[in-house]
Amino acid sequence: MPALSWREYLDEKMLPHLWCPGCGNGIALGALTRALAELQLPRNKVVVVTGIGCWGKADDYLATSALHGTHGRALAFATGVKAARPELTVIVLMGDGDGATIGGNHLIHAARRNIDLTAVVLNNQNYGMTGGQVSATTPVDAVTSTTRYGNPERDFDLCRLVDAAGANYVARGTVYHVPQLDRLIRDGITKKGFSFIEVISPCPTHFGRRNKLGSAVEMMKALKTRAVNVNSPAAKTGELPAGAFLIGKLADRDDPDFTARYAAVQQKAQAKGGFSS
Amino acid sequence: MKETWQVVLAGEGGQGLIVAGILLAEAASLCEGKNAAQTQSYGIATRGGFTKSEVVISTEEIVYPGVEEPDLVLALTPEAYELYARSLPPEAVLIYDTSLIDADQMEKSKARTFGFPFTDTARELGRVGVANLVSLGAIVATTGIVGAESLEKTIRHRFSGNAAELNLNAYHRGLALAGKE
Amino acid sequence: MNIANRSKDKNESTVDRGSKETRRLFLQGNEAIAEGAIAAGARFYAGYPITPSSEIAEACAEKLPAVGGVYIQMEDELGSIAAVIGASLTGVKAFTATSGPGFSLMQENLGVAILGEVPCVVVNVQRSGPSTGLATRPAQADVMQARWGRHGDQHLIVLSPATVQECFDLTVTAFNLAERFRAPVILLADEIVAHMRENVTLPDPAQIKIVNRKKPACPPEEYLPFKPDPDGVPPLADYGSEYIFHVTSSMHGERGYSQNDPANAGAKIKRLFTKLDNHLDEILLVKHHYNPADELDLLIVTFGCTTRPARAAALRTPNLKAGVLQLVTLWPFPDAFIAEAAQKARAVLVPELNLGQVIREVQRVVGKEKPVFGLHKSNGLGFLPAEISARIEEVANQCLR
Fold it and tell me: Would you give per-residue pLDDT tens digits along chain C (401 residues)?
């Protein structure tokens, strides 16, 4: 069979996409399709599960199977797919509102359960689709349509949260650092257990405009300036400038995943005949 | 032979009344091919630690699965005794635990009343918690509600190892208390 | 492993009763529901424990892995029904069980199952509410919630068991209807039947009628996951099969991609109704606990836990002919059966453990022609036969003598 190109994972009939000029979603979608192509995963063995939000529309453009669920519950839908059919590759696309705010409980439990899903959470620091309201990753003091006087709440560091909850793989990338993002997503898909990739992406339409962060190009440049590679000397010494964030692979473990552990449960149950005496 | 039995096993939480009810119902339904239904604690309002398990056994279809007019009551606390002693008709059977209930201090029941030292017997066996099984033995010996061997088979089926031995022992002591074996 | 062949079940009969494959057991209602699900082919359960349904979760946690299935305890009920939907789309029969508060949490994603046409079964063991209410006590107050609990226009099937045997039988039926119509089915039990123990007969598994969802037969590139067959039900492929398809909670066209066209939306919603309403003969189940040819003085319409005390009361009305019509299917509402039965009766009585839900539907069906009386109770206790007898007496004095 001839190799599948990244374009074959895209449903080009559905293009152009609905995302705003300057949005990073298209770049993240490109990274995902390149990762799928590099792994040559058969399209019918991939199920993309999405929630509600700008990034949650990504399944419309993918030529794999897909399940577009409700706001915040994508990981729970995906857990059912994976637990029932462990042989499938299940990729979960959520925004920061979907994955970390309304769906935060599912996020920490998916990580704790270490179920073999790959979550690609696109963090644009606000609810882009519905007019730029505050989310759990909006920085303190930032202005959104529901924090006109500045956000009184602090934001989550999603990677630390998911790391602490026990995911096998935690990484952060940006839509500026594209070759690295391709690799991070690819490695996340390959990794057994729960993989979490946070993708920092600009929302020039809402978050950038309200917080006077300049044009889309300037917001892109800011990603370049602020991101510090986890393997760099600065990252190693921990002396990071204000506003900096780490990118790269932040946690990498090989704990048994849910599928492996549940296979052991099934074995025990079958050995016992499944019934207490 | 009596077609339908309406049984109430009454006492307080922790006395194993639910398990006793299930064992009795299983003996009737699985070993003797009768219909049986077991329910717990609805109908009469619960108060304090009062607990009861109800069993209906019938050779006919059991239309209503709860007990409406009990014809066999096991009382393992003074409260349970008091609650049922007065209302039981003469043809009903009341079995109570003399270790815990001083019947002389209570109102006399019109029902055929039998007292046995269930808890003291269980204590002799080293485990107060098997008073329920001692009671079942006495119930079977006194009323013949199910065959002694049916209940024995049910106990063997439900428990294994040491638990089976202890429970069977308790059951046999109960049969003996009421003059069987 | 074939569950019929297991030998060390504590609930199994020790006496041979004819066919070796027929099992006589003494089970709790909740246990019978778990047995019914496994017999129907369910191999996936996702749930969150809640009184008085937890024994279903416990039984599934023990038994599903033994038959190669999966039990997963989710972080909440929103996640439980979501996981059930995800699992079902891989071709595995999936279900969950809950009670009042958890059932409320499941409503949004039940909508996904309805719109996305995902077969699954949700057991709601009704308890006394509202809110936390009387957590260990029975009620029948979720009849309307089961039907109307979600936003938006939709339709679904609700069945209600009155005996432990029906807990088993109707769970099998619930899965069969879910698979047949590519729709969620709710088994609306109650604390009384769920916690009661009775002898049941589990049929030889080979004799149990099992329905499996229609799979597509077309070439994969032609598959449209929401294009209905003439019966209104679209075939459903499995994720991971050669068919690639999308399912969405958004309004969608036949391809399963979101679509805003009003004509499409109107037709889709309409079909969610007609795919059930055009097949009522397969869905509506009632039990006449009297000879349906008989003329009655009083027709007593029951469901779930009201059935048995009502039947006991109906047997004790020497001067009055009363008959119990048990609604097994609650939704779609069995209009025709009630209308037919009411026609042969002088009055109708509807006892229910709520302050008036099914009676509204019965009144709608019966109209003004016949008097319809209620007997309503919402204090966490079930009906005793005597309470129903007393109400029959009142009704008799009012209009039957």
Answer: 223 333 334 444 333 444 558 999 999 999 999 999 999 999 999 999 999 999 999 999 999 999 999 999 999 999 999 999 999 999 999 999 999 999 999 999 999 999 999 999 999 999 999 999 999 999 999 999 999 999 999 999 999 999 999 999 999 999 999 999 999 999 999 999 999 999 999 999 999 999 999 999 999 999 999 999 999 999 999 999 999 999 999 999 999 999 999 999 999 999 999 999 999 999 999 999 999 999 999 999 999 999 999 999 999 998 899 999 999 999 999 999 999 999 999 999 999 999 999 999 999 999 998 999 999 999 999 999 999 999 999 999 999 88
As a whole number of angstroms, the distance between CA A203 and CA A209 comes to 8
Q: How much is the pLDDT for B48?
A: 52
- The answer to whether the beta carbons of residues B77 and B46 sit under 8 Å apart is no
Collect all residues with Cβ–Cβ distance below 8 Å to A209 and sequence separation of at least 6.
none
Could you say which of C17, C197, C309 has the minimum Cβ distance to residue B64? Answer: C309
| Interface predicted TM-score (ipTM) of this complex, two decimals | 0.97
Would B12 be classed as within a structural domain? yes
Interface of B with C (CB under 8 A): 22, 25-26, 29-31, 33, 35-40, 42-43, 45, 62-66, 68, 153, 157-158
| A1: in domain | no
Chain C residues touching residue A66 (CB < 8 angstroms): 245-248
Spatial strand order in the sheet of C23-28 = B112-116, B93-97, B72-75, B4-12, B50-58, B35-40, C197-202, C23-28
B49 lies in which domain range?
A: 4-176
The amino acid that residue C242 corresponds to is E
| CATH code of the domain covering residue B51 | 3.40.920.10
Considering only the beta carbons, identify the residue of B31, B62, B63 that sits closest to C14: B31
Question: Beta strands of B101-170 (E only): which ranges?
Answer: 112-116
Quick check: pTM over 0.80? yes
**A77 closest CB neighbour out of C44, C63, C83:** C83
Which phi and psi angles does C39 have, rounded to 5°?
-65, -35
Q: How far is C210 from chain B (nearest CA, A)?
A: 27
* Within-domain flag for A72: yes
Mark yes or no for CB contact C112/A70 under 8 Å.
yes
Counting the structural domains of chain B, the total is 1
Compute the distance between CA of residue B163 and CA of residue B158 in angstroms, rounded to an integer: 10
Question: What three-state secondary structure class fits C146?
Answer: helix
Count Cβ–Cβ pairs < 8 Å, chain A vs chain C.
Answer: 166
Residues contacting A136, CB < 8 A, separation 6+: A96, A97, A100, A101, A104, A153, A155, A156
Hey, what domains does chain C have and what are their CATH numbers?
3-207 (3.40.50.970), 287-400 (3.40.50.920)
Q: Is residue B154 part of a domain?
A: yes
Residue A69 in domain: yes
Domain that holds residue A229: 6-271
Residue C365: HSE in the Cβ half-sphere, 13 Å Cα cutoff: 20
Over residues C295-348, the pLDDT tens digits come to 999 999 999 999 999 999 999 998 899 999 999 999 999 999 999 999 999 999
Q: Is residue B181 part of a domain?
A: no
* Domain-embedded: residue A260: yes
